[in-house]
Amino acid sequence: MTDPDTDPADGPLGAFWSYERALAADDVAALDHWFLDAADTLRAEGTTVLTGHQAIADFRRGRAGAPARVVERVHTTPICPDATVVIAETRRADGSRGLQTQVWQRTDAGWRVRAAHVSAVPRPVPEPGPDPAVWRVSGRPLAAGAPEGPLSGVDVAVKDLFAVAGHPIGAGNPRWLAEAVTEDRHADAVQALLNAGAELAGIAHTDELAFGLAGTNAHYGTPANPAAPGRITGGSSSGPAAAVARGWAALGLATDTAGSIRVPASYCGLYGWRPTHGAVPTRGLLPLAPAFDTAGLLARDADVLRTAAGTLLPDRGDAPVPIRVLAVDDRLTALTEPGVRTALEAACRALALRTGLPLTRLAVPGTERLDAWFRAFRTVQAAQAWEHHGAWIDRHAGALAPDVAARFAAGRDVTPAQLTAAERELADAGSLITSALPPGTALLLPATSGPAPRVGAAPADVEAVRAATLRLTHLASLAGLPAVVSPLLAVRGLPVGLCALGRPGADLSLLDLAAQAARPEGLPRCPTA
Asked: Has 236 been annotated as catalytic?
């Protein structure tokens, strides 16, 4: 370390300037030194929050230094004798300005950063017109909501699989769109959000017929991912995810059959909710594989997600069983990249500390048959997809991108005997998974096997990532379980979601857990205050 602790008389301001010198020199060891070595130390930038000293250190090692900047003004305000907020006004070489806010805490070893937030305000650039890779149709509003309601002022990006009155369903394919009829009423989920006061910002693109996890539509393009520039958003809910991540909508109404909400939530640093299968009505939704199809949500804010989910779920009249136990299955976690496993361990410990809930190890029975479950899931999904869309595909040769066409073609070849055997395998697997989750238990696992792949990655590499991620996501799908993704992990500075699974019907409890984890803990405790 090139910069030792400052004299105690210099206090947090002296420590701040030592930190700045280390930042300018990209002295990673010194920067690690100045951040509090604790599991709940925080660093936020853009839409990504890093939790824990190790995750923050890993991020620094993965970047090529911080952008050069000049500190123009520094403001300090004591919270108590052992904690001070420092806000620095900065200017970069390109003329953009920024703010760095840090909470410095006095420890036995001296002053350390307990929490930090970095923001940059670029030079104003005219907003481009509607991004054709995100929106098929946009409007302000495209459809107005009720004058009052819990979602008043919330604008929604609707995935182009839901019926919106006055518009056809495009399903991510121009040939499908050209033949689609104009819908005369909203899908039930769309109507429920409008009844709660939400407004439709537009209809957003999907992977073709929703049979994909990448979000790289061959006809409409690849949406930008602001949380991971140069990387894909994930699909098939790519359009709503990009719209929400870019601040063009507060909420995304999307679908999740095999992970199409959970994957883009993970890649884009968003909250995502896949409901208990059958809990949210799907009338007016173009199906893919009805045995697994669900209508759920994406959001930047956990409380908005919780409120919106409450408008879609039926009123059961009884209070949900709260989450009382957090659990991790090491065999499932082992399916991910090493960096994801490390980040998961830190995030789970931090979540347990924050919520006061015990963190236990759990072994889902039967996971030695995971590959068989995965094959059975893909068999049933493909067979149902072909059942619903095979006739159209046969009439429109060449209308689908080759990779999507290949997935549908696999369903065409499934025999009745193969389908029956696969359905039996999934029924047994679903019973085993559900039995391993007592009421009040949340099973924590990474939402994806790793961060988002780069745009333009080799198709074989993207398919390998897709298959690895599906081995995680298909578990909730085959068992009909609710799943909530929170942006609590970071690997090499890129977002990866933490997914919490519960028993069927545990939706609100999991959403409450996500909202609790998202709320600020407040200022550092000051024993001497």
From this structure: yes
